[in-house]
Amino acid sequence: MSFLSSRKLVLLFVIILMAGALLISCAPAEEEVVEPEPDPVEEEGPREGGKVVWARRDAPTTLDPMKHGEAAANQINALMGGNLVALDSWEGEYVPLHAEEWDVSEDGTVFTFYLRDDIKWHTGRQLTAHDYVYTYDRAFDPDTGAVQTLGFLEDVVDYEALDDFTFQVTLEEPSAVFLASAATAYTKPVDKEYIEEVGDDDYARNPSGVGAWKFDHWVTGESVTLVRNEDFAWAEPWFENQGPPYIEELQFRYFPEEATLLAALEAGEVDIASLPAHAVDRFEEHDDFEVAVNLQMGMGRWFMPNMEREIWQDERVRHAVAHALDRDFFIETSLEGRAVPAYGPMSPPMMMYNEKVEDLAPRYNPEKAEQLLDDAGWVMGDDGVREKDGEEFEILLLTRTEELQMRDAEIAQGLLEEIGIKVEIESFERALHTEKVRDGEHDLSIGQYWWSSGDPDVLYFFFHSSQSPGGLNSFHLKDPRVDELLENQRTAVDPDERAEYVHEVQELLVEEQFAFFVYITEEYSAIHNRIQDWMVTPAGGIQLNDAWIDE
Q1: pLDDT higher than threshold 80 for residue 27
Q2: pLDDT digit string, tens, across residues 57-70
Q3: Is 353 helix (H, G, I), strand (E, B) or coil?
Q4: Residue 397 to residues 367, 410, 421, 442, 543, Cα–Cα distance (Å)
Q5: Closest Cα to residue 433, out of 460, 406, 400, 405?
Q6: Torsion angles phi and psi, residue 432, rounded to 5
Q7: Helix, strand or coil for residue 32?
Q8: Which residue of 57, 294, 461, 549 could cross-link 540, Cys pair, CB 3.0 to 4.6 Å?
């Protein structure tokens, strides 16, 4: 092959390579595949709006915090505004609320509270120390009739506003319970300007406050409606949400009849309600509800003898009644076993509960009950009713028209009639029943009390002589030994010393049987699943400032 031919071949090869490269470069490019952007996912979390309906069996009679001793009213008062301090029931200590901080003098008698300067009344006016001065003035004014509130403030001998945001309280002697008094809704501040504008009567029906919830309207016997306070920014420190509630409206709706309440709950007309024992299984298995459980904090079911009646002056008679009341029968019959026996005036979760009362308390023993009555001169008559000096042993038992109270009253009636005591039952709606037992129209009454702080000072309000008449001492008990112990526990700032007094007064109340203690309920609340992030305190209170509605 010639040199020329070789060059031609090389050139031809190069041309072929270039043509191939050109063909490749001119080939259509593969189309790029672009993945579509996913739709944004709405984050789960608190959303504003919606309405929660909270059912109760009992309705309030007034919303003036100084003029009642009612759990129904106190719940609303607390939601409408806190107080100087708040109880952190998880830690068992008092924490700042309206007061950023406070000082206590070396002798324990002077409390100086330094208020926040950003708290406003629902009317828009700023809360100041002068409002607390007016609150205490109003409580100490006899025309107010603030018996319950005065029970919290009775050791106060002086109070003043040192400036707009410094409130100072001087006590007669050191107090172990004053911070508890400064935390309760019974001593919460009241708005002088608003009360003077609308008057006491209208204030009781249309109150104002400084809290997360504002009063909207009240349909007597049916409902009380609150709406969120859009300006709120001073929640208790355990809430993540320090601002206004996410829920827009909170309505308390009242159902005196248990069956009606449960039907409304199951029909979706109600979001939150306490459950009777027999309905717990039904709602634990319900897809739309969660059931919160806790043991009652406070004072369980008791029967209150009116200690002004001559019939109760004989200790043997009181012990006979105690031996006749079968705790287990009450629990199984009335609560389907969902309770624990009460042996004394305080429930086991409370501070300074004395286990010794469990050994001291009389047990069910009808034979012993009959022997005690025989010894006291009450002889069984031919008609099955005991008599003495020509008088039959007949007592009037007053109860409220609530189903559980009525059921317990009827159980007590049957048990007492077995030992020859004739029992007449009269039932009244809450307000009238409260009035009658405060006036001492009963021989025996029935009660139960929730005390969210867990502090044993609750005993003071039920058993100290100063709380009768007009207060919660519907036992009308006036015993100097009880008074002294209750007063001493209030002034004993050393916890161990205070516990000794508290233990001793529990033992005295049980040894004397000034009240007949029956059971402590396990508390159940059904809460609809659409409500998110609610919490329950150790005392059983449902808290909603972090809660929101997931529709």
Answers
A1: no
A2: 889 999 999 988 78
A3: coil
A4: 23, 10, 12, 6, 36
A5: 400
A6: -70, -40
A7: coil
A8: 294
